[in-house]
Amino acid sequence: MLQIYNVKLQVAGTDEAGRGCLAGPVTAAAVILPKRFSHKLLNDSKQLSLKARTELRDCIENDALCYGVAHVFMKEIDEINILNASILAMHRAIEQLTTQPQHIIVDGNRFKPFKKIPHECIIKGDGKYSAIAAASVLAKTHRDAYMEKIHQEHPEYNWKKNKGYPTKEHRAAIREFGITPYHRKSFRLLPEQLSLNF
User: Fold this and answer.
1) Local structure of residue 190 (DSSP, 8 states)
2) HSE value, Cβ hemisphere, 13 Å, CA-based, for 160
3) 15 assigned to a ligand binding site
4) Domains and CATH numbers, the chain
5) What is the dihedral of CA 82, 119, 91, 164, to 10 degrees?
6) Contact 132, 122 (CB under 8 A)
7) What does the pLDDT look like over 94-135, one tens digit per residue?
8) 99, 137, 143, 115: which is closest to 14 by C-alpha?
9) How many CB atoms lie within 10 A of CB 73?
10) Residue 16, annotated as binding a ligand
11) Tell me, what DSSP letter sits at residue 51?
């Protein structure tokens, strides 16, 4: 059962998706939910079916007090590293909120202060607090939609299915076809990375 973090504060939950991918952006969302928001399907997005995530996305975007979604793309990931890019994506998502939160709750264990707003990092927070779970759903669905869009340009990598994660199929395609502008050059794209020509 997901909890409301603190009904006395205007709390924003934030989470990211795509941190471990070989291709595509890292995507973050930030959400402020109404105080008594609940939905029977709401949970960590990784535990949900595609149908449930899609239903939840519509519900969250319609019912949230406000939300923001931000991508940080491959070039920036390569320049500042994936941890900093993940935090930057969360900051950019929070910046989009039309109501300034009084407190920020973050999935995971790393974050950098946003303005002077207090924050708390919560391990597996997307399975504990509704605001983080809602952010995880938005981050995942928006990123998945982006990967399905760029799949049309490069169907040989099957991003529609693997979403840029390091599956055997994705790595086999990199080995056969090389890399695209959507691949993260700072990542170990293949086990034999040193022999890969950029």
Assistant:
1) S
2) 8
3) yes
4) 11-151 (3.30.420.10)
5) 40
6) yes
7) 999 999 999 999 999 999 999 999 999 999 999 999 999 999
8) 137
9) 17
10) yes
11) H
Residue 107 among known ligand-binding residues: yes
Residue range 31-90, pLDDT digits in tens: 999 988 888 888 877 888 999 999 999 999 999 999 999 999 999 999 999 999 999 999
Q: Render pLDDT for 169-193 as a digit per residue (tens, 0 to 9).
A: 999 999 999 999 999 999 989 876 5
**Phi-psi bin for 14: left (phi > 0), alpha (psi -120 to 50), beta?**
beta
Cβ atoms within 10 Å, residue 19? 15
Token pair recorded at residue 183:
């691949």
Tokens coding 98: 């039309």
What's the whole-model pTM score?
0.93
The tokens of 187 are what? 């990542």
Q: Pick from 89, 97, 91: which is nearest to 71 by CA?
A: 89
d(C-alpha 131, C-alpha 2), whole Å: 9
